């Protein structure tokens, strides 16, 4: 239930300063969730600041305001890394704590800034304390790269393993994070695309991984055929296991190998829909998608990284030109939207298009 409370209101750019300052002077109301909108951050406080405390805020933040605002009550068990570590780290490092982490099954994956490297064991202990279902904490030790899109990890807490059983949208996936790529941050895209697939469609998933698109589509839609391709042999083995576990053997057909060769040899002109979740280089395979799509047309879902100042219009033009070079035509761009921010000034976007 919403609860009315006095708060510190600051522009978004000063949100972290306000949160940390309120904690430092013991004003934070830890029973209420911090709220934000497009312009401001609202930090709930337990009482009106004294003159001395207001001087502290004035020193840190120019133009802060006191006002009454509605907040959601925080569950008693809900804690953040700042809550757990405020007395274990120097105050200036609290602002550098990771704002989010990925949880895959019972494995938590965290990105540690350089300033916090010497505290990685402390961070891992805090993650295990907050997330009771987590048994392993891994730190990112490099960027996603290589043909198989893998990332190196460092074990910083809990059990020494990289295998997990992850549940998402009613499906179960076996993964080994050292051998296959998997991102829980794409669950909304898995659900969105699966909801668009119609009964009796044929889908080609060019870069299927362990099957988060393919398996969900097969579970949700009647009489579909999903050809799930991947060049990573480990991904294909986990995909086969996930197909069996989710009981979609007669609807998902795993194929190991290079997508270009497979489509040219086996899947020419069969697809109502093609999924291209290889954002680093999906544009290089647009001609492959054009070959897989049926003669009378179909839908393409292309994932791509855009870097500022690249524009979405530029992506539309590049996509359309590539389709035309492949002898097809873009009938309609159905959607072009940001999926997530992947780095400063870098976004993963998805383009949905009908080609004929």
Give your account of this protein's structure:
With 356 residues, this protein is α/β, with parallel strands linked by helices. It has three domains: 2-72, Alpha-Beta Plaits, CATH 3.30.70.2580; 81-161, 2-Layer Sandwich (GMP Synthetase, Chain A, domain 3); 182-355, Vaccinia Virus protein VP39 (Rossmann fold, 3-Layer(aba) Sandwich). The protein has helices spanning 15-24, 51-60, 81-85, 91-94, 120-130, 187-196, 212-220, 233-245, 259-266, 286-292, 312-325, and strands at residues 2-11, 35-36, 40-44, 65-72, 102-104, 107-110, 136-140, 153-158, 163-168, 171-176, 202-205, 225-230, 252-256, 273-276, 298-307, 330-343, 346-355. The strands form four sheets. The protein has a seven-stranded mixed β-sheet, with helices on both faces. It has a four-stranded antiparallel β-sheet with strand order 2-3-1-4, with helices on one face. The protein has a four-stranded mixed β-sheet with strand order 5-6-7-8. The longest helix has 14 residues, at 312-325. The protein is elongated.
Question: How would the blueprint of this fold be written?
Answer:
Elements: E1 2-11, H1 15-24, E2 35-36, E3 40-44, H2 51-60, E4 65-72, H3 81-85, H4 91-94, E5 102-104, E6 107-110, H5 120-130, E7 136-140, E8 153-158, E9 163-168, E10 171-176, H6 187-196, E11 202-205, H7 212-220, E12 225-230, H8 233-245, E13 252-256, H9 259-266, E14 273-276, H10 286-292, E15 298-307, H11 312-325, E16 330-343, E17 346-355
Parallel strand pairs: 6-7, 11-12, 11-14, 12-13, 14-15
Antiparallel strand pairs: 1-3, 1-4, 2-3, 5-6, 7-8, 9-10, 15-17, 16-17
Helix pairs in contact: 6-7, 9-10
